[in-house]
Amino acid sequence: MLPRRRHYLAAVLPCVFWMWPAALASAVELKPVLAAAKSRPKLPGMGPSFRQQVEFPTGEAAGTIVIRKNARALYLVTGANRALRYRISVGREGFLWTGVVKVGAKQEWPEWRPPLEMRDRQPGLPEMVPSGPYNPLGARALYLHDKGRDTLYRIHGTNDPKGVGFDGTSGCFRLTNTDILDLYRRVEVGAKVVVE
After folding, report:
1. Residues in Cβ contact with 74 at an 8 Å cutoff, skipping those fewer than 6 apart
2. What is the pTM of this model?
3. Judgement on whether residues 179 and 105 belong to the same structural domain of the protein
4. Active site residue 15
5. What is the pLDDT of residues 145-188, one digit of tens each?
6. Percent of the chain that is helix, strand, coil (3-state, to 5)
C-alpha cells in the first residue's frame, strides 16, 4: 500500500505546483473585480409583506383593485366581501388623484423614465434608470392607463423596504417588493383600478 501512495504523490505534486502560479495569477486578476463589488452599495432588501386577507364590503368584481388613499391601502377584491389588503405609499400633497383606470401593462424589473415635469422639479434626475435592484420602481410595475393611454402613474415596488405607509410619491402607489411580487402575479392586464 505504501508504494502506491508514493507513486500517487509523485504524480500529483508536480501538477499542483505547476497549477499554483496560474491560480495565483487568477486571484491577482480578481482583486479589482472584488474591490469594485465591495464598493457597490449593499443590495436593497425585498421588504416585509404587509398583505392581509380582510373583510371588504364592495360591489366590485373579483380582480378589481381599490385604492383608498387616506387609509394608505390597496385592496385586491378576491370575492364577495373579501379582499387582500396591502400597505402602500401614496402621492404627497399636490400629487393626489382619484378616478377609475385600468392596468394597461405589466413589467418585471421595469426601467424608470422620470417624466419631464419631474426632471424639471428635480434637475438631478436622469432621463432613464435601468432595470435592476437599485431602480426606484422595484421588482415589478403595473402601468395604469385611462381610455387606452398611459397615465404615467404606476403601482410598483420599491428598493427601499421602509418606503411604504406614508404620503411621499409623485402620484404612484408604492408597495414593498415582496408585496408587489405577490400582487403582480394575481392581477391581469385590463383589471379595473378604482382610486378613492
Report:
1. 65, 66, 67, 68, 85, 86, 88, 155, 173, 175, 183
2. 0.76
3. yes
4. no
5. 999 999 999 999 987 877 788 777 878 899 999 999 999 999 99
6. 30, 30, 40
> Is residue 64 within 8 Å of residue 100, measured between CB atoms?
no
Catalytic residue among 7, 15, 145, 172: 172
List the domain range (segments joined by +) for residue 17. Answer: 1-40
Tally the domains of the chain.
2
Q: Given this model, what pLDDT does residue 117 score?
A: 81
Q: Quick one: which of 181, 193, 175 has its CA closest to 109?
A: 181
Instruction: Answer yes or no: is 173 within a domain.
Output: yes
Cell (9 digits) for 167: 404620503
Asked if the structure places residue 78 within a domain, the reply is no
Which residue of the set 7, 15, 145, 156 is catalytic?
156
Active site residue 156: yes
Q: List CB contacts of 5: < 8 A, sequence separation 6 or more.
A: none
Straight-line distance from the first to the last Cα atom of the chain, in angstroms, rounded to the nearest whole number: 83
Residue 77 in any domain: the answer is no
CA 35 to chain centroid: 27
Amino acid at 39: S
